[in-house]
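Minutes, project check-in

Agenda point 3 was the complex the collaborators sent over. CS summarized: two entities, 863 residues total, and the question is how they sit relative to each other. Sequences were read into the notes so everyone works from the same version.
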Amino acid sequence: MQRFKDLQDINLHFSKFLNTKIILNNNQKIGNLSDFFVDYEEIFPSVLAIQYKKNRQFYYIKWEDIIYLSYEKIIVNDDFQKGQSRTYPKASRNKVVTSILANQFTGETIEYPSIGHLIIDKQIVDTNGKKVVRVNDLQMIRSGQELRITHAEVGFSSMVRRLGFSFSLPIIQKILTKYRNLVPHRLINWKYVHAIPNKNINSKLQLTLSNQDIKKMHPADLADILEDLDTQGRNLIFKDLDNKQAADTLSEIEGDLKASLIKDKSPVDVANIISEMDTDDAADILNDLPENRQDEIISNISDNETQEEIQELLEYEDDVAGGLMTTDVFTVMENQTKREVVEKLKTEFEDYPILHDIYVINDTEKLIGTLQLSTLTISSDDTVIKDIMIDHDIKKLLDNSEWEDVAQYLSKYNLITVPVVDHTNELLGMISVDDILPWLLDEKN
Amino acid sequence: MKKIKLFLSNKWAQLLLLLSIVGPGIITANIDNDAGGIATYSLTGAHTGYRLLWILIPITTALIMVQEMSARMGIVSGKGLADLIREKYGLKITFYSLIFLVVADLGNTMAEFAGIASAGEIFGVSKYLSVPICALLVWLLVTKGDYKIVERIFIFGCTIFLSYVISGVLSNPDWSLMFSSLLKPSVASIKKTDFPIIVGLIGTSITPWMQFYIQSAVVEKGISKEHLWHSKIDVIVGCIFMFVVTLFIIVSCAATMFNSGINITSAKDAALALKPLAGSYSSILFAIGLFNASFFSAALLPLATSYYVCEGMGWESGVDKTFKEAPNFFGIFTTLVFIGSVLVLIPNINLFNILIWSQVLNGVLIPLILLYIINLCNDPEIMGEYCNSFLYNIFSYGITIIIFIANILMIYFEVFAN
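CS then shared the predicted structure for the full assembly.
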């Protein structure tokens, strides 16, 4: 079969196929190509059928019936099978490795939408570049007798081509070869493409964002993506995260968006998410909510200790030490040995994102010493804390210190973390240097 | 901060806060009273008296419908207008429409700077001083400052327009004549020369860029479908407010200038409308109002344009991003502010004409945008069960056709019959 006899370009583009006339061998016209149906279950989806529109109805012709394909015309078998539907039945093949997009369709889907309708001019998440972009075109290749989609195109070239100015592209590219950065030929490999569902009324085509790649992203990157999405896409992704992921991502999101993401959740759900956070992040979020909501959520926190700690933190203004600190502090007693401390650490280490200094308290919770983790590590198992801790001139801050003073203090004494005490020297919490950075970078205003 | 929070938990304070947390409708009302708006309304009053007052009612009705559609689209779809246009009509249509829109917005930006220049001239400050300084301030305010604060100050400053209402009342108008002119449509009373004013009135009330702005504002607020009614009320209230202010601007100008046969050729003349209220201080009062409206619109308008262009073309946007991260966004904004302000500095250019004709340009473009909006509002894939009803469609398409006819008539009389 000489399907691609006249299609010799290496890189093919979806937009160039649009409106190509479809004819029979005797030149009788059937219609103009409007879209492709592809097999989403492949890493680089192959075309299963072409779609055309006639008298406001959508029809499709299977790939097997296509004898000849080029940008100018498409010739089909005389006895081609015409399907009348806006969707295409799912090819039921069991594949082990599937593309992101295939995974996005919920298990119930038996019909697939066409690829242009799904992706062209719509926004997608680029899980590699970790941002939200809008698709201008699709890049395809010939592979044997099949046509496959390899990339989503988002850059300047694809925009120029869609506008019909592709004749000018070589000229533009010649002029701009010096400024290669300005004309990025942005291609996103299909395996990183993550579609963002429309509020699609046709429930047969439900696309969900239940997708592993999204969940593997760093919370800070995911937060950036959520900030770029519209309300609906945002809520859909967020809804799917488990409590821990939701908590981590929520901490990284800016201001107003935080509140709006949890707006529609029940107090119990919010409480569960909040419990997974560090207490200072939890207090930050609750701070932005109206008081009655705050109380509702706090009362639903199952762990009493966490509940108390958060409530204490809410008493502080957010720009003083008390408002910046977390109450999750690793503490030991002075008469413990290194062995005992390490045992304790083994069970608790996950609660402490930054563990640089260990704080030593007495039985009335007063801060009596500090100890660097490195010092502990090089000591022998039988060493008693009292002997290796620093118990004089302990660097600490009062809970009402202003954030500027906290920053200066950390800088002056080269501290990564600093303990926060009240006027009776009782240890309340600690501030680490990453809590102060947003204030210094002016992000908190 | 704690004390403020205690205060805010008080019910009355919450109500006050609610009013100040402006809904999109109130924003519209105030932005309609920008430099171009004030000029157009003043001109209407001074040159036509009460003759064209009746047009205000259909215009306000049209405005309510259009705003309501944009708000509804934003709430139901969760997307901006440029986003929806791009997704439904594709890149080509979006691109060419955006070109027209940007040209119109450039005209509007020029109008804002013309307003700044005019206000400055009332105070005796040359435009070569006021415009560059303000252009720089505007640019800094948006790129380095917080534009949300800009919105708030602007809206607060717009309370100055109540002075028109007071002035209108004080000028002792012929109330019965006013009401009958308002409520009795008389197509026969339209003169050939009225058409630019009519198209200008339409264009300054229903600006294309406002539709994008409203929808984005609604989306950003994250209003849910359950609160649809709330936003409809907000739109209606905003439009009624605009209607009242517009009415009294026209009435004040009619009373002070039409009857004495005074023609408006510059902003200084338009200030006369406030004489009944402020006497010899009328110019100063007017200049303050004009400056406030112009300055903040000069900040908000190019910003809104940059946002919706980037949204439609798929470019990075956001004031909190750096130049490197969102080059197109900042590029568009800077270009609009720059060209808009530079063109105003051309020697001997008639500032008032810029103010009027920029609104006329809006009026010409608005039927196109309306077509998009109505078409999108009828798409079940976007709106689900919230599509326009059949009756609503008749009204909307009817309005679009009428505006289009007005445009045609204007072009005919201005270009060909002259």
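Noted in discussion: Chain B has one domain: 23-416.
Follow-up: revisit at the next meeting once the mutant set is ready.
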